[in-house]
Specification:
Length: about 220
């Protein structure tokens, strides 16, 4: 079994907290919409690979500017050295945006459901659309309303063995799927830089997630 990978989500300019988390994680997600104007200076200080994300409001983000400006910031991240860009499946002219990103970076195409976990067949169709649009990684995040929802999102990883997938459920009931995602073949799991800096419900800290993985490896 490959070592599970952790992506720590940066939601503010607390660089000291980021540096403390750095040895525990494999990569970062830079939330442009949450950090605000200082995100470029923070990104320049990162020593690990990073994903640029400028989440639109329709998918739970805080970007308040125009769609054109949102895209500009993501393309700016590519020029600054982002290894990957997270772009939503619902984005208009998606293939055009993906093509621009992939000139210099990889592309993660994402879809979020903040209400529930849809049936597995519907989730499979979402992944197929992400792959068809050019995703290097397909990401599907749902909301767990019952324990079985964890099994649904994790099954999605098994159903696409030839593709790179991130799939888990948000909320307290979905925490187990966050932990298991990279253990069952998912690319990585997301974690908070520190307690109180969670970017989504059910997210645990990089320190706690790293500790769980070390215990599983009996390190």
């Amino acid at each position: 079994m490959k070592r599970p990978r952790i992506c720590a989500v940066i939601v503010n300019n607390e660089i000291e907290a980021v540096k403390r988390a750095e040895p525990l994680v494999n990569l970062f997600e830079v939330r442009i919409d949450l950090i605000g104007a200082g995100w470029t200076e923070l990104a320049k200080q990162l020593k690990k690979p990073w994903i640029a994300c400028n989440r639109c409001a329709e998918e739970g983000g805080s970007w308040a500017g125009s769609e054109a400006r949102r895209r500009e910031e993501l393309l700016r991240a590519v020029e600054l050295g982002a290894d990957m860009v997270d772009i939503e499946l619902i984005t208009g002219n998606l293939k055009e945006m993906v093509a621009m990103i992939k000139r210099k970076a990889k592309c993660l195409i994402s879809c979020h459901d903040f209400k529930e976990t849809p049936p597995l067949e519907r989730l499979r169709e979402i992944v197929k659309k992400e792959i068809a649009a050019g995703a290097d990684i397909g990401k599907v995040v749902t909301t767990a309303q019952k324990f079985q929802d964890n099994l649904t999102v994790l099954q999605l990883i098994a159903d696409f063995p030839q593709s790179r997938i991130v799939s888990f459920a948000m909320g307290g009931l979905g925490t187990v799927s966050r932990i298991l995602c990279p253990l069952l073949g998912g690319e990585f799991s997301y974690a908070a830089i520190k307690e109180g800096s969670e970017s989504a419900a059910g997210q645990i800290t990089a320190a706690d997630l790293s500790k769980i993985y070390r215990m599983l490896k009996n390190e």
